[in-house]
Amino acid sequence: MRVLAAMSGGVDSAVAAARAVAAGHDVTGVHLALSAKPGTLRTGARGCCTVEDANDARRVADIIGIPFYVWDFAERFTEDVVEDFVAEYAAGRTPNPCLRCNERIKFAALLDKAVALGFDAVCTGHYARLSLVDGRPELRRSADAGKDQSYVLASLRPDQLRHAMFPLGDSVKADVRAEAAGRGLAVADKPDSHDICFIPDGDTRAFLTRRLGERPGALVDDESGAVLGEHAGVHGFTVGQRHGLGLRVPAADGRPRYVLSLEPVSGSVRVGSAERLAVRRIVGAAPVWPSGEQLAGEVACVAQVRAHGGTASATASVVDGELVVRLTDELRGVAPGQAVVLYREDPGGDVVLGSATITAAT
């Protein structure tokens, strides 16, 4: 197959590309320039997409003997990922930019261009397993539970997955680094990037304040309605947050308070006890079925609401075009804007059934 390997400059995408070559594919490497100012997006292990990263990817391509190009996707990334991120926070929701990047950049903009140029598949360094079962793509968790990225890939459609390749799905990170060292790749010990790539200092609240300005509002006790403090904007908070609330009035029971909900129109941030965070029902919009098979009736499954953690046994069904998930065990900190991803409930529990964007949790 003709394979386009997306090479970020890190160890995972480097080994994925090398494995595609070793499997006998005709591989071309491409680094996506996602920032208009690529020199500013890496601070130690944070961020990505710098000139340094592009050069690291080019050196890997030279070693494994494949052509290499840099494609400028900065404008598309800004519009589809960064601006979407800002707009979602302004609306009181909590987006997942990695999911958006996979959905709109790597397996939309990049994949569309790759197919137009005659490539059969896009290869990435994601930790997830992908196979065809009876002609349908089956997306599964990675063998390395600590690195599993099936959650942020669960919004991909069957037509996108049929052109995807994840060579690292059966590996653990330590073995990937060892393989990179054995192949003589200088990125073998390169630190992983963390947090949000376009916020290299990790200060999401400051980034959003620079973009949205201050939008003062009240911190309100959810139970009594009392005003407990003030804030500079709902965009500085997410459901489940405990630290940095700035409460001027301590709780009567002396226990910590958490963000329960955000009301961007009134500017209110409602806070309360941890117990009031508990939810047993989740509603999600615009469901996606990676295998192409929609749920038939009510299905037992495992629901996940965050990229790492936040799982519970559940039953799920489609009602009037929305995904309705009823949790067997309660979850806390379920935020609108995040994805709820469903996995098949079986001994492995690792096959993705579908995903949707959370609109309500009660």
Detail the topology: elements first, then pairings:
Layout: E1 2-6, H1 11-22, E2 26-33, E3 42-43, E4 46-47, H2 51-64, E5 68-72, H3 74-90, H4 97-116, E6 121-123, E7 128-133, E8 136-141, H5 158-161, E9 164-165, H6 173-182, H7 204-212, E10 217-221, E11 227-231, E12 258-263, E13 268-272, E14 279-288, E15 299-304, E16 311-319, E17 322-331, E18 339-344, E19 352-361
Parallel strand pairs: 1-2, 1-6, 2-5, 6-9, 10-13
Antiparallel strand pairs: 3-4, 7-8, 10-11, 12-13, 14-17, 14-19, 15-16, 15-18, 16-17, 18-19
Helix pairs in contact: 1-2, 1-6, 3-4
Task: Report what the structure shows.
This protein is of the alpha/beta class and 362 residues long. It has 3 domains: 2-125 and 167-189, HUPs (Rossmann fold, 3-Layer(aba) Sandwich), CATH 3.40.50; 214-276, SH3 type barrels (Roll); 278-361, Elongation Factor Tu (Ef-tu), domain 3. Helices cover 24% and strands 31% of the residues. It is built from 7 helices and 19 strands. The chain has helices at residues 11-22, 51-64, 74-90, 97-116, 158-161, 173-182, 204-212; strands spanning 2-6, 26-33, 42-43, 46-47, 68-72, 121-123, 128-133, 136-141, 164-165, 217-221, 227-231, 258-263, 268-272, 279-288, 299-304, 311-319, 322-331, 339-344, 352-361. The strands form 5 sheets. It has a 6-stranded antiparallel barrel. A 5-stranded parallel sheet has the order 5-2-1-6-9, sandwiched between helices. The chain has a 4-stranded mixed sheet with strand order 11-10-13-12, with no helix packed on it. A hairpin with a 7-residue loop joins strand 18 (339-344) and strand 19. Helix 3 (74-90) runs antiparallel to helix 4. It is globular. The termini are far apart.
